[in-house]
Amino acid sequence: MSIVVGYWPTAEGRAALRHGVDEALHHQTDLLVISDPGDAPERDRDAKAAEVSGVTVTTRNASDAGMAAELIDASYVEGVTLLVMGLRRRSPVGKLLLGSISQQVLLDAQCPVVAVKPHVSAVG
């Protein structure tokens, strides 16, 4: 049993990683963090920080096929029980369509997908 996280070095990507760590702790499983190769330094730094919680974290670069294909392929691996990715906040018009990666993963992943947003403080 394992959990896959789609990581980007953004507030949304870090929120996905935090949620993935929480789920891995709750289910006593490991975590696979996938990112674009160019994001590997930030991913590795954030993954190392996540390991402090006691979760075993493995990292992997997305292939030339891209993040959507890599996350979808990972969702079909035996034992993967959850895929976590971050979503950015959008304007009302932007809400009509999800991002292409998010939409493709939600539609084609074999396992359940959790889409998280970063925490935003209330104003006032």
TrEMBL record:
Which InterPro entries did the record assign? Answer: Rossmann-like_a/b/a_fold, Universal_stress_UspA, UspA
Cite the CDD domains for this sequence. USP-like
Locate the UspA domain: which residues? Answer: 36-117
Q: Belongs to which family?
A: Belongs to the universal stress protein A family.
Q: What is this protein called?
A: Universal stress protein
This protein's species is Kineosporia mesophila
